[in-house]
């Protein structure tokens, strides 16, 4: 389900203060990257990902493949940083960025 504009605005304000949890290089979505993405989304729901690819089109393609692999929604892209969200039906309120900052 796509995010509503009000939700995106709220998540952008929360994501502004986050540090990148995952850094992806040109190797793409490997098993390790996919496992870490899954863990981070399950724990935090809203994460910031840094994609170290110089070409803009390749970088956007990598961000889209990350969202597809993690079954997540893209909230925002600024330069090499992407803000990604996936709802957890049973979040840990101490780890979830949504519950901690709401």
UniProtKB/TrEMBL annotation:
Keywords: RNA-binding. Residues 1-97 form the CRM domain. The keyword RNA-binding applies. Signal peptide: none annotated. This is YhbY family RNA-binding protein. It comes from Pseudomonas quercus.
């Amino acid at each position: 389900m796509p995010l509503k504009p009000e939700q995106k605005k709220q998540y952008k304000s929360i994501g502004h203060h986050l540090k990148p949890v995952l850094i992806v290089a040109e190797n793409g979505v490997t098993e390790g990257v996919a496992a870490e993405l899954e863990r981070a989304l399950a724990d935090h729901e809203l994460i910031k990902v840094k994609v170290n690819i110089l070409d803009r089109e390749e970088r956007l393609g990598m961000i889209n493949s990350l969202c597809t692999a993690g079954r997540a929604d893209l909230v925002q892209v600024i330069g090499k940083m992407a803000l990604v969200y996936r709802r957890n039906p049973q979040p840990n309120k101490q780890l979830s960025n949504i519950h901690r900052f709401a």
